[in-house]
Amino acid sequence: MQKLKDFRITPENSYYATGKRKEAVAKVWLLRDHPNTFIVRSEKTKKEYNLRDYVQRETLYQKIMYPFKLTGHEGKFGVYAAVKGGGVAAQAEAIMYGIAKALLQHNPDLRPTLKKAGLLTRDAREKERKKYGQMGARAKYRWSKR
């Protein structure tokens, strides 16, 4: 597996975008010079992983690759993503949003395709806060008459 130290990321050879989902934030670089190189750096462990090994589930991997498949850019770019916060599923969606936004920087003509697929709309759903006097955000304590 390639590591970040094996190559240099510069504005000349990459496109950058940030993707967010729930508590997860992904800083994503699309690498022109290193196609089919997919590296994820976890801020929690400070280690780099192969993308497929990091997300583990095939469905999440397919979700991440969806913007490439949709626009026909499979095999043309590599991905380096630095993720923090949230769980693996939220991080995968954050990477997907970041890839879609970075593809837009590469070619603004892809906007209608990505917009129609809903890849440019930030999923704004967040966790609802717990309220005082309740068990959780909505669940109440059981009421007893005596």
Description:
The chain has helices at 51-55, 58-71, 88-106, 111-116, and strands at residues 14-21, 24-31, 38-42, 47-50, 78-84. The chain has 146 residues and is of the alpha+beta class. It has one domain: 2-Layer Sandwich (Ribosomal Protein S5, domain 2), CATH 3.30.230. Strands 1-2-5-3-4 form a 5-stranded mixed β-sheet. Helix 2 (58-71) packs parallel to helix 3 (88-106). The model has no long low-confidence stretch (mean pLDDT 92).
Order of secondary-structure elements: EEEEHHEHH
Q: Briefly note the structural class of the backbone.
A: alpha+beta
What's the end-to-end separation, in Å?
65 Å
Largest sheet: 5 strands, mixed
Let me know the number of strands. 5
In percent, how much strand structure appears in the residues? Answer: 15-25%
SSE arrangement:
Layout: E1 14-21, E2 24-31, E3 38-42, E4 47-50, H1 51-55, H2 58-71, E5 78-84, H3 88-106, H4 111-116
Parallel strand pairs: 3-5
Antiparallel strand pairs: 1-2, 2-5, 3-4
Helix pairs in contact: 2-3
Short description:
With 146 residues, this protein is an alpha+beta fold.
Keyphrases for this structure?
146 residues, alpha+beta, Ribosomal Protein S5, domain 2, 5-stranded mixed β-sheet, 30% helix, 22% strand
